[in-house]
Structure formats: structure tokens, C-alpha cells
Amino acid sequence: MTDFAPDELLTIAAARELTDGTTTFVGIGPPGAAANLAQRTHAPNLVLVYESGAIGAKPDRLPLSIGDGILGETADAVVTVPEMFNYWVQPGRIDVGFLGAAQIDRYGNINTTVIGDYASPKVRLPGAGGAPEIAANCGEVIVILRQSKRAFVERVEFVTSVGHGDGSPGYRERLGLRGRGPVKIITDLGKLEVDPETREFVMTALHEGVTREQAIEATGWELRFADDVATLPLPTAEELETLRSLKA
Amino acid sequence: MTDFAPDELLTIAAARELTDGTTTFVGIGPPGAAANLAQRTHAPNLVLVYESGAIGAKPDRLPLSIGDGILGETADAVVTVPEMFNYWVQPGRIDVGFLGAAQIDRYGNINTTVIGDYASPKVRLPGAGGAPEIAANCGEVIVILRQSKRAFVERVEFVTSVGHGDGSPGYRERLGLRGRGPVKIITDLGKLEVDPETREFVMTALHEGVTREQAIEATGWELRFADDVATLPLPTAEELETLRSLKA
Amino acid sequence: MSAKITTLRDAVAELVHDGDTIALEGFTHLIPVAAGHEIIRQGRRDLTLVRMTPDIVYDQLIGAGCARKLVFSWGGNPGVGSLHRLRDAVENGWPHPLEIEEHSHAGMANRYAASAAGLPFAVMRGYTGTDLVKHTPTIARITCPFTGEELTAVPNLGLDVAIIHAQRADRKGNVQMWGLTGVQKEAVLGARRSLVTVEEIVDELEPMPNQVVLPSWVVTAVAEVPGGARPSYAQGYYDRDNDAYRAWDPISRDREAFTAWLKSEVLA
Amino acid sequence: MSAKITTLRDAVAELVHDGDTIALEGFTHLIPVAAGHEIIRQGRRDLTLVRMTPDIVYDQLIGAGCARKLVFSWGGNPGVGSLHRLRDAVENGWPHPLEIEEHSHAGMANRYAASAAGLPFAVMRGYTGTDLVKHTPTIARITCPFTGEELTAVPNLGLDVAIIHAQRADRKGNVQMWGLTGVQKEAVLGARRSLVTVEEIVDELEPMPNQVVLPSWVVTAVAEVPGGARPSYAQGYYDRDNDAYRAWDPISRDREAFTAWLKSEVLA
Description:
The complex is a heterotetramer, with 2 copies of chain A and 2 copies of chain C.
Chain A: H1 6-16, E1 23-26, H2 30-40, E2 47-50, E3 54-57, H3 69-74, E4 77-78, H4 81-89, E5 96-99, E6 103-105, E7 110-111, E8 114-116, E9 121-124, H5 131-137, E10 140-144, E11 152-153, H6 171-175, E12 182-186, E13 190-194, E14 201-207, H7 212-217, E15 225-232, H8 237-247
Parallel strand pairs in A: 1-2, 1-5, 5-10, 6-11, 10-12, 14-15
Antiparallel strand pairs in A: 2-3, 3-4, 6-7, 8-9, 12-13, 13-14
Chain C: E1 4-6, H1 8-15, E2 21-24, H2 33-41, E3 47-51, H3 56-63, E4 67-72, H4 84-92, E5 99-102, H5 105-116, E6 121-124, H6 132-135, E7 140-143, E8 150-155, E9 159-170, E10 175-178, H7 184-190, E11 191-202, E12 211-214, E13 221-224, H8 242-253, H9 255-267
Parallel strand pairs in C: 1-13, 2-3, 2-9, 3-4, 4-5, 9-11, 11-13
Antiparallel strand pairs in C: 6-8, 7-8, 9-10, 10-12
Helix pairs in contact in C: 1-2, 2-3, 3-4, 5-7, 8-9
């Protein structure tokens, strides 16, 4: 077996979650790499939508940014940024929103804004970007994030993008949010999925070789496990090769 | 001298009102012909804007409709219809709106909707089109219309596009209308201009050979004349030739 | 979900139902005339017809009795005169009364934009001081929460179906149009279902200046209908048949002449 | 009124004043970096800087002390990490405190759209349930007058100046850009004054796919600045210099390194 980096494991696991033929809103970093990998492997008809205005992009290398020229050149359609958010994201046309996070809590609320006090922060993060409306309006959201106590927190310090709020029934519906919100978190340790009863994220799968203790240790809330915790197969040589060739 | 039809007289007189370098919102019929003629004669840098989305059109023949293909093909920019009204007309970017009318009254209010009762009309006219917002937002409005008692009425039966309302001071300002509204009416008998004191349209010029009695007879309100009524020179052979070649 | 490539007949049968709110859009260019005739042939009734510029194909739909209501901003035969079937319906209730809901172009364009954006309304400056406000309940005042300024709101069109005509589609159902494209993108994005008739279906959509591309997954059905916009025009394919627009005037002025035309030109 | 064709130095001197609200827009592509450096050289102060994606040129403007406030939706060095001059200003008040007004991309895009449309606000679905609502006073609730539904309003940006970079202009000052063009049209149409730097001024603007053309009469000034978007890219001219973005990270982390860089690379 080939060696791989934690981000490669994460990216490949995330790519596997994307169903062929769906439309996916793609950000930068691991989510972008995962979507591009999926399109190159099991999901050739995956429609990649970038907030820079490219709809149906088919880049032949990994875009260097969400505004990489390759996106516009290979897209089915190119639209302005206001049109992207108003006509495409807002009405819920996109099946899957693929997001990163700095912090996420047990109910899938996401912080990408600030650590510490807002007015005099400990760490000023980049901010919201497209995430709040992606999280609100896409059919569902998959979060990609390395698992650690710093990132997986009991309660996010700032709600940049709404997950399932305080976990109370109908939280999203009461706010008028139309999408189902975060349903999966793909990490370098495994996969968490939202429990439809409690709206809490529980560990439903671990990567091959990862222990429950590692997962508990890397989570800032009292992590629950599904009754059957699946084992995710390690990246295949083909997946790794395709991913690496994308980045070349 | 060449013979000419009333509409030709009207069109040529209207063309002369357009200043080179201004931007003009152009409808169909005589306003369109006048704007195209002006661009071909004394105003080569006149910017023609069509509600179909063509900005800076330079048609080499008279467009057959406001959506004629020649407009898009020769335009500096082509935009969608929502963008035309929202980004171009609404903020008051267009200097001159060029409108026709079925009825106009002494305060320049325009009816293109209905004659008789709205619910069971005597004559159902085409309706508003772009006119209400052109009349509200363009820098100023020039109306082009053959003069007759049927068309020049004491009070329009339906206000499709607002002129100076009841003529009271600050009428447009109170409504929040930003453009100056109708300032001139070009007819087959001459020219009416709005009196800045009373906001009533008064006859300021007559075409050569037209009498005051003819103008009074063709006006449904008690027509006033300016202190100095100018005489508009007849169409020149060159103007007529250019206009006719446009239509060929 | 990709667009289904089908026939005009099957698409209309499947997508257009009695009582629907439907827009056949086109601003002089690319008017979906053939689709309108297919709706007449299939005998749809009680339609709420929506269009900024209802022209002769809407006159025909109204004269044929398909419509219960018309939502519009300018109803004429451009460069020719009135729409006589529309006038006969409004003025005399023939073949049956037609309710009208009347806006300005700016208002209709904003209603399409709100529909495409999935919003219940759009904000604009407009209508202030006009008599349209008295007769059109779908015009409301709204106050800016930041400045207190009063503006105008117009609602989502609530379209069940949008039908447009485009130059080309590819075999996956991606649609391409170019030239003046009016509010057609908004119509398709703003409707629950959509049908695009195209001049031709091609292997690959070569980029064109001023193009609008609608990806297959926002279109319900595509049907190849060459000449489907006649007598309007399809840039790059054929010109507007101005004689046909003029010829419509005497036909439409007379109920009998219209009925005979309908029988021989559409229903036959 | 046509655009004046002038130099970058004269345009910035004439159009950008201390205390202005100013947007230098560009969404990864066509970022007006040279114009940002000219603003630093001319020592402008107390600017309210507006941009969806402030990147390294905004980091430089902030570090150089030009800004009083930042209005934005995502402030990072794309693919690299933080903007350290921005963080130093927000976290430590160096070189002086920086007020921030924070939105989402959707909110900023709608603020630009309202600005271009001459409206005091725009309506959208957004922000509901987020903590942005608590910290950003320019987010308000608004009720649909037709359905009673609660939505979100965001205000006009009130831009004094917009600066963008485009591929080409012609000698009359008509501007052409293509590829991903973000909110640049809205920025120019939404500002009182505008400056467009271009790669080249040409005799004729040949149509390009996905082009946006701004007619000369909506632009205040055009300046030819080849390479004016570096280290970002100009499609058809040059690629993004990713090394420069990575190299910014260590320079910007350290006040002294930054000050030295500013002296040698911008002010010299």
C-alpha cells in the first residue's frame, strides 16, 4: 500500500460521498480537490458549481483558486457573482454544498469567523464567504475537516453558518432554512453523520486502522458512536494517483 | 422642395432635438426613426439604448422592431431586460427618454393604456411597456405625437406615465420621481414646451406654414402660446433623403 | 436531473395543464410560436398567460379560447397596431371574458427576476403616481429598513411552466441562445417546469458572443422544432417575417376570418 | 460624458480622496493591484475599503495605514492562509484600529446589485440564525407585502469610487473584460466615480465569449497599466503568480518585514 497524507485520506473519503449526476457547490481546499477527484473517478457527470460564477466546470487540473481561469474556460455557463447567489444558490438549485470549517459543534454549526471575543478576537478567521447561504439553501451539506479537539467543539464561538442550531426539533424549519443542512462530516479519522432524532453528529464510520479512542480524543464533545460503526477502506492506489495527478 | 408626409415632418423635427453625445432611450415608431436619423446626421455620437437590451446600437438601417437583430449585432453592449431596467433606466443613467403616446394632457401626463372605463374599455391600447419608468427616471422626456383633439386632451383618462401631474409645484418631487419628466412635445404642427412656472405645455414653435388656428384647433385644452413663437424650418432634402434611405 | 429530449407534442401534453400559469417568453426575438400553436391544438383551457410583450401568438391563444387571464406589460402587434383578439376578449368578452393584470416592463422584468431568485417579491422604483397602482393589486409599497424611503414591490409570478425557443441544444439538453435574450433565462429559472424548443440539436455547443447557456439540469424538456419561432426570428437562422405580422392585422380584426385561419393554419 | 483616458497616477490623484468609500474589486481574476499600490504611494487615509474578497492588496493597503474600515465577506490569502496585516489591525490595532463590517458573499453581492440599481437596499434570503446578524448593523429584516414572509435586507454600499482592472479598452474608453468577472460591473455602475485600469488600449474591441462591456459613458477614467493585476491574473494575458501569494505570507507576518517590503516594492 502507498503512503498518504491525512489531507489525502480526507479528500478521497469525501470524494466517495458524491453521487454521480448531482450538482455540487465547491469551495477551495480539500472540498474542491474532493469534487474534482470524484468527477475524475466514479462521478463523471458530477456538476461542479463555483461561487466565482462557473457552472458545470470540467477542469483538467486542480484549480488553484475558486476563480482560476480554467473554471470559466471549461464551464457550461459563466454567470456573474450576484447571479450565482441569487438565481442559483438561493432558490436551492444545488444538491450538495461542500464546506470546510475552522470550528464545528455537535449540531453541525460552523464557525469560520472568529476565535474569542468578536470585538477583540484571539484569532481573526477569514469570515463567511459563501458559506452561510450555501448551508441554508443547498439540498444538503457535507463538511470536510481534520478532526481535533480545537476544531470539534461543544459549542462554536461564532455561528457563521447554521447547522442544526441547539438541536431542538424543527430548528432549521423555524428559521425558514430550506436545505437539510449539514448531514455528514468527513474527517481524517472517519465519518460523522447527523442523527435524525437528536440532530447530533455521531461517528458512523472510521478509516481502516483508526480506533474509537483516537476519535474520542480528537472530539471536544462527548462523542457518540452509531450502533454499527463501519470501516472505511483505505485510499486505493488509483485514487491516490488520480488525486496527485490533479495537483501536478 | 420635396413633399413629405406628416410623420416625416414629425420625425425630422424630433431628430433635431437630440444633442450629440447624449444617451437616448428609444422606443418603436417615430421616436426610433428620429433617433436613428439624428445619429446619421448631426449627432453621430448619440448613444441609442433599446429596452430589448442593446446599448450603443448603431444600426445601418431602421430597426424593424425594438428587438431587431441588427441592434444586438451593432451594440457596444447587450444586456438582459431585467438588467436594462434595473441597472440602466432606474438609476437615471439615460439622458433623454423618447416616448410616443395615445393621449397627452396639458401637464404632459401620458395615456397608452385605455380609452373609456378600465374594466369595460372603449379602446384597449397596448399598455405601459417601458414608458412609466422611462418617464420617471430618464433625465428628461421628449414626446413625439401627431397633434389632434383626440390625442391632446384636457386630462388623460388613464395616467400610464406621469408628467407633471396636476401641475402643482413640486408634484414630481413629492412622488420621488428623479427625472425632469416631459419637457417637449414634437408634433406635426410644431413644438410644445413645458412652462417652468405653470408646468403647462405651451406652443413655442410652429412648422413653417402652420397657423396658430390650426394648432388651437388640434388641441383639446385651451392652448397657450409662448411670447415668441418660433418657426421651425421645413425638412431639408438631405434630412428627407437620409430618413427615407433608413427605411429602405 | 437532465432535460428530457422529446417531441413538441409530448412535451406540451406532459408539461402544460389546464389552469396553469404559463409564460411563453421572447422579446421580439426567439418567440416560441410553434409551442403556442401546439397548446391551441391540444385544447388547453383556463390558462393564465404571462408575458411582457404578448404579440400575435398570444392573440391566437386568446382567440382560440385557451386563456382565462393575461399578465403583461405591452400588448400590441409591434409596428402594426392592436392585438384584435386580445381587444375583442377585453372589450367584448369573446370568445369569453379575459381578466387582465397589467404592469410596466420594469415591473414584469422584476417579477421574473424575483421568480428566478426564489423570492416572493422584488423591489424597484416604479409606478408612483400612475393609475396602474389603482387597477393592479400586485403592486405594493415597501419601506427601506435603512433609509425609510418608500419603494415599490412586485411579486413572484408563480409560474407553473415556462416555454422559450433557443437556437441550439446539445444531446445532453444543455441549451444555448444568443443575441437579444430578454427575460428568457429568468422565465425558465422561475418556473416549476420548462420546455425549450430549439432550431437544432447539435453534438457540441460552440461558444457565441452574448450567449446565454441554460444547463440541462434546470430545463425539464427540449424539443427540436426548426422554424419554431416563425414569424419572429432566430438570429443566425432566419429573419423576422414582417409581412406575416402585417397580414395578421386583417385576419385578427374579424372573428370569422380568425376562426377560418385557426382551422386551416393551426388545427388542420 | 465619455471616460477620460489618463495615467494611473493622475486618475488616483483626481478620483480617490481621503475618507472615501472605495471598492477595488476582482474575484481572484483581474484584481486591480497596481491601482492599490498607487493609492498607498499617494498616502490616502481614512478610506472605507469595500470588497467581497479582500486579498493581499487589501492587506497591503491596511498595513500601509490607508484604511479606517473594511467592509467584506471573506478576508484571506486564497489557498495560503490568513491576511496577517488585516489580523494585526483587527487583533492589535496596528498601524491603527480597523473597524470591520462583515457580510456573507450573497449579502455583499446583493449590496453591489442594489448599488448598481440605484436602490437603497436589496432583498435576499440569508443570515438567518447566524451570529453575523448580531454584529453587523447593515443586516435587517423585511416583510414581503404579498405573502407576509420575513426576508433579509442589505443596504446600498454608498460607494464613492470603484476601481477595477480589465483586459482592454478602446480609444473612446469603452471597457471590455472576459472570463470570470465577479461583481465588477456592479461596482462600476454602483459608484459615483470609477477608474478602470486595462492591459491595453486598442483600436477596436473584438467580441469575446463571456465578455462584459462597460460603455465609456459609465466610466470616469481609463488608464493603461499592463500587468496591473499581477500577481493575480488577466485571462488571455498572464497567469496567476501563485508563488507571489505564498511569498506574501512570511512578509506579512512580520511588521518589520512588511515595512521593508512596502518601502522597497511600493514606495521606492
